[in-house]
Amino acid sequence: MKTATGPDTWGTFLTYTGLGSGTLAAWNSFILGADYFESRFPASGLCGGGQHANRLFTVFYLPVNLSVVAGLTYWNTLLSTRTRIRIGLAGSALGLALVPLLGALPPSGLTLAATLGLLCCVGVTDGLTQPALFAEAAQGPPLLTHALVTGTALAGLAACALRVATKALLPPTPRGLAASAAAFFWVATAWVAGCLALYLTRAQRPREGVEETTPGARTPTPASPPPRVELSPSVHGASEEDAEASLLPRGPAPEAVLRSPYLVPLGTAKAGVGEVRATLRTIWRLSLATCLIYTVTLAIFPGVLVEDARAPSGDAGRGWFVVSMMTLFNLGDLAGKGGPTLVPALRWSRQGGILGAVCLRALFIPAFHLAGERHWPGDRLVSQLSAPAGLALCTLGLGFTNGVLTSSAMATAPAHVAPSQAGLAGSIMVLSLDVGLVLGAALSFLWLL
Predict the structure, then answer these.
(1) In terms of Cα–Cα distance, which of 115, 91, 92 is closest to 102?
(2) Which run of H or of E encompasses 232?
(3) Is the torsion defined by CA of 254, 80, 129, 399 positive or negative?
(4) 90/349 Cα distance (integer angstroms)
(5) Could you write out the DSSP letters of every residue in 362-376?
(6) Residue 349: how many CA atoms within 13 Å on its side-chain side?
């Protein structure tokens, strides 16, 4: 048996990191391509005269995504997680590929409507993929969930780097902007398609425990049960200290886990409505914490940075300033989400402690308001430099706390329920995250007042 720190462990970690990056690649692509869409549809009433494209995209994407996640969490026996992931990744890749094809058509109200309809479809496909992947990861060691959330942060950072590269390599003209956006979306398409290929080739699971054993293989009997990995304490009588201990790797390494049958096999959805309620009662503090994390984050990011913060060089440098701030946020988010894998002190497991820390993040709202203030007392040069520096520090802090608290909550939730409910706990946490995104997006409109 390989050790928990052997090559199989890191190979599995990298696999799930790659899969996690695919869950948000489509959404990140639309958000980071907002400057292209604003330039393409400058006079459209739907785009508010070419402004607020990010908020427009949020309105069309998040409610659809939330509805799909909520529906599949409630009616969780409708589709297996394997089917959701396959359809979701394939659909997201197709949706991204259609964006540059629509870009070849003349801009009009019809092409804008088609673009927004395409965004809604991406919301559906992402809603299929996200909870299904977290449900599968939740049935393995916490390392797999940490890998997924690290992948989501990596997706944002990689998308920012790609957008910077495509903007820098082409001239800042309408034609150059269109060409850079087309290249950006084609690379994003290949990225998601690669995640689908990765899932199909490396992350396949047995269909029903020993259902796919080779001919002549011995079928497990009650006297010789299939191997199981104990990942979390029972729901009944488990203390938070027990849950914290359960976060440490034990049993076979993740690669061996992928090859062994589970009590509830990966790639299936078994829970009923009663189990959804019972699981939610057990992890409600982590569910609420995840919701509040993204309520605060989306109330600020990316709307305030993209549309309300002003660049030091004025409107001429606004595009690069926005991309720089978004890159800084994603750097902090990646450090926060990847940190718990390497730094044990960042692995929080107490539900109350996580919820308390999340509530303190509400202080970022007045902090961003003060950081964006342009009329600082004192020297004018200091006033001009203080706002960007303050915004940069707040953005980095917002990203880091978003990452470390998300990673802690998402990885801890399955440890507080029985192994048979771990996958359901993962789906509930994704639903809580989506609810927070919608609430935060709604609050972000208050910055326009």
Answers:
(1) 115
(2) none
(3) negative
(4) 35
(5) GGHHHHHHHHT-S--
(6) 19
Question: What is the Cα 349 distance to its own chain's centre?
Answer: 20
pTM, entire model: 0.74
pLDDT value for 158: 86
Beta bridge partners of 224: 221
What pLDDT digit, counting tens, does each position of 346-374 carry?
A: 888 899 999 999 999 999 988 887 776 65
Distance CA 140, CA 258 (A): 8
How far apart are alpha carbons 349 and 429 in whole angstroms?
15
Q: In angstroms, what CA-CA distances link 298 with 59, 140, 439, 446? A: 12, 30, 8, 12
411, containing H or E segment: helix 380-412
Which pLDDT belongs to residue 141? 86
User: Which H or E run includes 24?
Assistant: helix 7-32
Is 1.10.490.160 the CATH number for 7-209+267-448? no
Question: What is each CA distance from 356 to 74, 243, 286, in whole angstroms?
Answer: 28, 18, 10
Domain boundaries, the chain: 7-209+267-448
Close Cβ partners of 1 (under 8 Å, ≥ 6 residues apart) = 252, 253, 256
pLDDT at 252: 39
Among left, alpha and beta (phi > 0; psi -120 to 50; other), residue 83 is alpha
- Between CA 283 and CA 291, with CA 288 as vertex, the angle to 5 degrees is 130
Q: Are 10 and 33 in contact (CB under 8 A)?
A: no
Residue 413, token pair as written in the block: 């939730």
Report the C-alpha gap between 330 and 326 in whole angstroms: 6
Cα 251 from Cα 370, distance rounded (Å): 50
Q: What is the pLDDT of residue 289?
A: 96
**Residue 168: what pLDDT?**
78
Residues of the chain under the 50 pLDDT cut? 1-7, 45-46, 48-50, 205-270, 375-385
- Phi first, then psi: what are they for 221, rounded to 5°? -120, 170
Tokens of 172: 């800042």
pLDDT value of residue 203: 58
Q: Which two tokens stand for residue 60?
A: 């069309």
Maximum distance among all alpha carbons in the chain? 83
Question: How do residues 80-102 score in pLDDT, each as one tens digit?
Answer: 889 999 999 999 999 999 999 99
Contact present, 167 and 180 (Cβ < 8 Å): yes
Q: Give how far the C-alpha of residue 361 lies from the chain's centroid of Cα atoms, to the nearest Å.
A: 19
